[in-house]
Amino acid sequence: xxxxxxxxxxxxxxxxxxxxxxxxxxxxxxxxxxxxxxxxxxxxxxxxxxxxxxxxxxxxxxxxxxxxxxxxxxxxxxxxxxxxxxxxxxxxxxxxxxxxxxxxxxx
Length: 107
Fold this sequence. Notes:
By secondary structure, the protein is mainly α. Helix content is about 55%, strand content about 5%. Helix 1 packs across helix 4 (about 45-60), helix 2 runs antiparallel to helix 4 and helix 4 packs antiparallel against helix 5. The radius of gyration is 15 Å and the shape is globular.
């Protein structure tokens, strides 16, 4: 049985994200979510970037929970380190949330 890219991404991140978010992430990275997942895809910058994007999406979720499990701030910090290590390894800039306003209103 072949695994699709979207199924592999869900299996990699371990937490539920909306289908549309994952599809958008894959499309933005130039991946077809219905294509077969293989070694070449797994090692590609596009797939690895999609993994990091999904991790950041989880961090930015107001409350990430599944059943009785919640993601603590400490764990979110660890997740951000993982995402940033992926971004840097594929030649992209790390994400920095420190001292950034959550909402900016222009006059």
